[in-house]
């Protein structure tokens, strides 16, 4: 979808689209038109070749999950964060872990993540030995939150 654009153009287009979806409707969702964007965006970004875009999308997806729990804190969206825990780039893995920290720090959101936890707990535990120390430290913090 974005492979022909420069990073700044991609970020600009994503920002404009996001503002159009949220800002233009006073917080109300017009599900017909926006559903297509919100369904395709995680899929397209997860496959994007630019690691910065994948990292930004995972960060924003985590924010959407916290802000719009009923719509986005579902296995259909959580799987994108789980799959991206395997990303080759440090910054992408780090953003996934930080997004998960934001979700697991609240008991009410953590309660909705049982299937995700059971599916990706092995990967999260193995990330304690991540080759990047900052990722490993954040994973230890994440696992601590999960135990609380």
From TrEMBL:
Domain SCD per the UniProt entry, residue ranges: 42-127
Alphabetical list of Pfam families matching this protein: SCD
GO MF term list: chromatin binding
Top-rank lineage group of the source organism: Eukaryota
GO BP term, example: establishment of meiotic sister chromatid cohesion
Keyword terms, alphabetized: Nucleus
UniProt KW Ribonucleoprotein keyword: no
Cellular component, GO, one term: chromatin
Family stated for the protein in its record: Belongs to the SCC3 family.
Protein name: SCD domain-containing protein
Organism per entry: Aquila chrysaetos chrysaetos
């Amino acid at each position: 979808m974005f492979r022909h654009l420069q990073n700044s153009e991609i970020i600009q287009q994503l920002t404009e689209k996001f503002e159009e979806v949220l800002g233009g409707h006073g917080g109300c969702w017009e599900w017909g038109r926006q559903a297509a964007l919100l369904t395709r965006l995680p899929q397209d970004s997860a496959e994007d070749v630019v690691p910065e875009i994948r990292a930004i999308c995972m960060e924003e997806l985590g924010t959407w999950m916290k802000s719009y729990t009923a719509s986005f804190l579902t296995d259909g969206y959580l799987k994108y964060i789980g799959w991206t825990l395997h990303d080759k780039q440090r910054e992408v893995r780090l953003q996934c872990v930080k997004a998960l920290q934001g979700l697991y720090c609240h008991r009410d959101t953590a309660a909705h993540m049982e299937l995700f936890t059971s599916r990706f707990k092995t990967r999260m535990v193995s990330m304690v030995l991540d080759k990047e120390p900052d990722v490993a430290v954040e994973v230890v913090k994440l696992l601590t939150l999960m135990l609380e």
